[in-house]
Every structure is written in C-alpha cells, then in structure tokens.
Amino acid sequence: MREARYALNAAYNLACWCAVVVVATALASSLSPPRVDHDGASDPPPELKQSVVSDFECETTEVGMHVAEGRLFSHYSLRDDEGKELLRVMYGRSGRVVVTWGESFPVKAACSATPGGHYSMDVVSGESCYRLVVRPHAASGFTVSGGPDGIRDGLGVTPEGKLVHGPTVLD
C-alpha cells in the first residue's frame, strides 16, 4: 500500500506539472504570432489574430489555431529573443494539441490532449522516462521506465476503479 501511495503521489505531482505546461503554453502562445513554416504552411487567417491591451499595460497577442487546407496538422513555434525554441505547439485537424518543451530546457517534456478527453504527459530526464496518461474509457496511470537497469513499472486505475500494477498498465 505504501508503494501505491508513493506512485499515486508521484502521478499527482506530474499531473500538476502538466497543468503548468498547459498554462505556460497558453501564456506563451498568446505572446508570439505564428511564422511561416519552412514547408510552406501559411499563417492563420488574419481575422484569427488579435492584439489586446490589458489593465497591466502589457500587450497580449491571441493566435487562432488553424490547419491549412490539405494538411493534417500545423506547428507553432515559440522562440526567445535569441531564436531558441521554447515551446512547440502542434495542432491537429481533429482538435488534438501537443505541446513540447524546446531546446532551452535540459529535461524534455511533452503533453497532449484530445477533444475526446485523452491526456498524456511524458518527461524524459537522462535515461529515465516518466509517463502519465488519463483515458476516459481505459486504464489511466503512471509508468516509469529506463534507468541503468532498464526497469519499467506502472500503477494505474481502471474505469471501474480497480487499482492495477505492472509494466503494461498503459499498453
């Protein structure tokens, strides 16, 4: 029971970080207009972009997500003043959103969400990979893999509320 409590606490903390990623992405995406991608994808239509002045005298740019005709998804890259990618947002025609931390961060993290309620977050630090997945009609849980011994283990909850343990929780 102690191991389950530890794993659930770790999963909860990871979920909180996922929320931080989503909020940071929303804030960052509002500060940078999209650019033309190298593969010829164009900016969203002008009516989707707006500048709003807030009470705090800072400018916020709202960017409407748009997938060009004939494409399955679009990428939006948010960069710092030096041109380093901070965040990459992929928006799919189906409404799926994937947010990936950029090259400026030593720990690689990504999270995704679908209109159907599927959420996931992956964090890779060194040889270890941590994964949190929330699915409405399948087992949701947390797995850890990698490390020097190549271990893999997981803890999850089925839609019926049953606690499941093992490396194949999210398979």
Written overview of the protein:
- With 171 residues, the protein is an alpha+beta fold.
- It has one domain (2-165).
- The protein has one helix at residues 2-29; strands at residues 50-53, 59-62, 73-79, 85-92, 97-101, 108-113, 119-125, 128-134, 140-146, 151-157, 163-165.
- A nine-stranded antiparallel beta sheet has the order 3-4-5-6-7-8-9-10-11, covered by helices on one side. A two-stranded antiparallel sheet has the order 1-2.
- Strand 3 and strand 4 (85-92) form a beta hairpin.
- The chain is globular.
- The relative contact order is 0.13.
Widest sheet, order of strands: 3-4-5-6-7-8-9-10-11
Q: Please state roughly what percent of the residues sit in beta strands, choosing from under 5%, 5-15%, 15-25%, 25-35%, 35-45% or over 45%.
A: 35-45%
Give the overall silhouette.
Answer: globular
**Cα-to-Cα separation, first versus last residue:** 23 Å
Give the tally of structural domains.
Answer: 1
Helix content: 10-25%
Count of β-strands:
11
Rg from alpha-carbon coordinates: 19 Å
Q: Report the mean per-residue pLDDT as an integer.
A: 77
Low-confidence stretches: 18-46
Helix/strand-derived class? alpha+beta
SS element count, helices: 1
**Quaternary structure of the protein:** single chain
Written as H for each helix and E for each strand, in order along the chain, the element string is HEEEEEEEEEEE
Query: How many strands, which pairing sense, and closed or not: the largest β-sheet?
Result: 9 strands, antiparallel
